[in-house]
């Protein structure tokens, strides 16, 4: 009877443990990403009063089983239902992330690494992505520039805290314009083409510092000067760059000659001072509407380059117009300024072949400290048709079919999005996007072997195996923003377990009561 008392006590203890686990599950029914636990029982050691015997072939006597009396029950295991995902709860917050699959977020307290399924994140004052509950930083990968392509890619060599809203990431650097186009109708009967001023076309562009400018082009008839008087070439026009204006309408167009920059000659003698280095390359091109190409067979594009001056010095000089020949079609020299910075350049001209040589030479000088991006202007959609004497040509940034190469000014961060693969992308007010990093995830050989640390955290153990840090999509998982994973506690199952646990506890208490009554009867025998 003493054994039954101890068995009853053991039963009470184990059922109380099971009730504790059930109570914890129910208490965490609304805890983000909580994984429910369950208890399994196992019987205790047995007292053997008679060992088993085997059959005796000689006597024909059969074997006898052992006689054993159990000593109660104990807790066999407390397992976590970690493989079952909880339902999704929509929050709308861009930093709330739900994981699908078997992966875990990786977080750190600065010295130790933990793992969690609770994606309720926030950004602290330093712009670092962290857990909203305890401030542990979310670990991931930063970015680097690909040495071959120059593109921004994920740097998987270093796991670190994600400073997604650092001062550096809050703005988007300006991008210089590389593409522009001129479209519309150029009517040969327009009044502008009948004057020396020609048809003026303004093309906006942005430099690599984010400043806005406007390139002013002049379109005029092209002539064959081999005849006397020169004969106008039908369908052919000459277009040249005449001025560049800043955002306030002030001219910044200066043309300096520097023999060391390659290919351009015309002013003999000394090199210009650093303050008078080439600021802008004056460009000119003859184009033919009939073929959509230049007379020398090139695509109808006009390219001009802009340059920075050393140490930000503003160049000083006088505008010198460029003229010359192209593809055998002679172009008459327009009036030329007689001096540049006081130096006499009377009668000096630059032909287009020299300009092309210069531009070609600049292609290999893209890393020059004084060089900005070239702007290529597409003329292919201009039309030379009758429009009742009115020309409608105008210039715009970008390409004909998209904003590619349009350039942009500095932009402020307007939003952040997190993709299914955990990549974080910022969008800016200038229309640019920037890859900021990627949230890392971890998987385990035996996720059930993880140890709960509280605060929705898990720690690796010998039985869970080491964490394998990887891209979540490598295991078929994904991330969804604006949602959180809820607890996977099944209340109906918990209440059912509560009932059976209560009955088990009551039954074990009855064992103690009955055993006590029996002992009382035994004591009463001597009365």
Overview of the structural elements:
This protein has 527 residues and is mainly beta. The protein has 3 domains: 2-82 and 488-524, no CATH class; 88-171 and 424-485, no CATH class; 179-397, no CATH class. The protein is built from 3 helices and 35 strands. The strands form 11 sheets. Strands 7, 8, 11, 12, 13, 27, 28, 29, 30 and 33 form a 10-stranded antiparallel sheet that branches. Strands 14, 19, 24, 25 and 26 form a 5-stranded mixed sheet that branches. Helix 1 (2-27) runs antiparallel to helix 3 (491-524). The model is unreliable at 254-282 and 307-372 (pLDDT under 50).
- What proportion strand? 35-45%
The secondary structure category is mainly beta
Radius of gyration: 42 Å
Helix content: 10-25%
Average pLDDT, rounded to a whole number, is 78
Oligomer: single chain
Low-confidence regions: 254-282, 307-372
- Major sheet size, sense and barrel closure: 10 strands, antiparallel
Count of separate structural domains: 3
Give me the count of strands. Answer: 35
User: Alpha-carbon distance between the termini?
Assistant: 20 Å
3D shape: rod-shaped
Total of DSSP H or I helical runs spanning 4+ residues: 3
Write the layout of secondary structure elements.
Layout: H1 2-27, E1 37-43, E2 46-50, E3 67-70, E4 73-80, E5 88-90, E6 97-100, E7 104-108, E8 113-116, E9 121-123, E10 129-131, E11 137-145, E12 152-161, E13 171-172, E14 179-185, E15 199-206, E16 212-224, E17 231-246, E18 284-288, E19 301-307, E20 325-326, E21 329-330, E22 339-340, E23 343-344, H2 352-363, E24 371-378, E25 382-383, E26 394-397, E27 411-418, E28 423-428, E29 433-439, E30 441-443, E31 451-454, E32 457-459, E33 468-470, E34 478-481, E35 483-485, H3 491-524
Parallel strand pairs: 14-24, 14-25
Antiparallel strand pairs: 1-4, 2-3, 5-35, 6-34, 7-8, 7-11, 7-30, 9-10, 11-12, 11-29, 13-27, 14-26, 15-16, 16-17, 17-18, 19-24, 20-21, 22-23, 27-28, 28-29, 30-33, 31-32
